[in-house]
Design a protein that fits this description.
Shape: elongated
Largest sheet: 5 strands, mixed
Number of strands: 7
Oligomer: single chain
Helix content: 40-55%
Structural class: alpha/beta
Strand content: 5-15%
Strand order of the largest sheet: 5-4-3-6-7
Distance between the termini: 130 Å
Radius of gyration: 36 Å
Length: 522
Amino acid sequence: MNSIAEQPQKSVDPALPAWIQAQISTLQFQLAERDLKLVERDAELKRRELKIQQLTLELAHHKRIRFGCKSEAFSPEQRDLFVEASDEDGAAIVAELEQQKPPVSPRQYKRTGRNPLPPELPRIEHRHEPESCTCGACGRDLVKIGEDISEQLDVEPARFFVHRHIRPQYACRACETITAAPVAAGIIDGGLAAPGLHAWVLIQKYLDHLPLYRIEKISDRHGVPIARSTLAQWVGQLGVSLQPLVDRLTELLLQGKVLHADETPVQQLDPGKGKTKRAYMWAYRSNDLEGSPRIVVFDYQTSRSGQHARDFLLKWRGHLMVDDYSGYKALFQKGVTELACLAHCRRKFFDLHAAGGHAVAEEALRRIGELYAVEAQAREGGEEARLTLRQQEALPKLNALHDWLIDQRLKTADGSGLARAIDYSLKRWPALIRYVDSGILPIDNNMVENAIRPITLGRRNWLFTGSERAGCRAATIQSLLATAKLNDLEPYAWLKDTLEKLPTWPYSRIDELLPLRKKTPE
């Protein structure tokens, strides 16, 4: 057998190496192209994943606002979305069961526990004596040994009545002069309505948010037809008369060193186009921790321009608690100190957690909850005690929260819901923690948001304002009624008393008419 070396050599095609090299180059190009497509596909999948996460978060947020509980309370138990209907159904079932039982005599009835009725309510006594004063068993006289007293709460719908003013006229025979009691001055001289009716109309329109056509129907149902045009005339004149009170409230509000501010959109009728356009109700609220009078003033404007806030505050310089709206930024360049709202930061994480039980968002809510627990503990103390507690308890927790947020941000993809929530907090961090350096600065903007809430709920009834002047009038009356509620004054009683006094009241004593809680002498 011949060895390999002795075998004849076969010729090799000179084009083969070139062909192999070409095939290798083609495969390398295809592999590079495939790797590029894989990278692009991974990027597209990541983009879609972030978009899905964003849309899921947004959808959950809108569902919660549209159908869910408005409270942001963080609890493992979810409230029943139909709790009111459930309570109504439960009561109906109990009532139907009671109908199936044999009748119960009054002696067998057991009264259930309930809260006592307010002692300041007027009482109408009804005495129920037995049919006979003799014993039904033996015929002897009965002796009173006590009383069984029970109370029922009742209500009387709007009751219209007439004040008939009679002024006798007396003549002097000697000098032939006539004397009579003067006619009391009124907001609307010679008008049909008494101050009580004027107050009722304003309460119905601006506190209960009933349009004038509904108030017209209510009065007509009680047999007192009052034309809508007459109601409108009353409202217009009353708004002008009450404006000096709001001007004075604004002066007192701007004396504070700390204010809350926010704004909410309302629709204004645009007659020229037959449509509505967006306007804004700006709100400014005093700071409770400062010890200043509780005041809220609304300012109606036709846009959301930050110039409106600058015009309202004018030369005021202090600490302003606001959200992250850019319209306020110019104020912070002119001597106003920015305070950021911790509740807004919390809301970002709450929406993320509500969308799907996000673990990192849950931890953020827990840490923020600890800060609010410190505030609850400091609420009853004075300024110095609150500052000490914030420095000792809140400041270390804020520093730990800041470090934790930075660490989580490094692990979080850009564009995700968690990244946006963290970025929002970190961007506003200097203004967010400013409250711990003082005993009077608030932790959030909830005070003014609570003041605005009745307007946001009421606009579902009135839908839009008829004009810019109507919006300004609404801001005037809303400011007075909201301030009265803040000071625990019954709005109708305060407004009726004020409308009675206002026509002859000197402006030098206007502070006595304001809806503020009267200070008790020490």
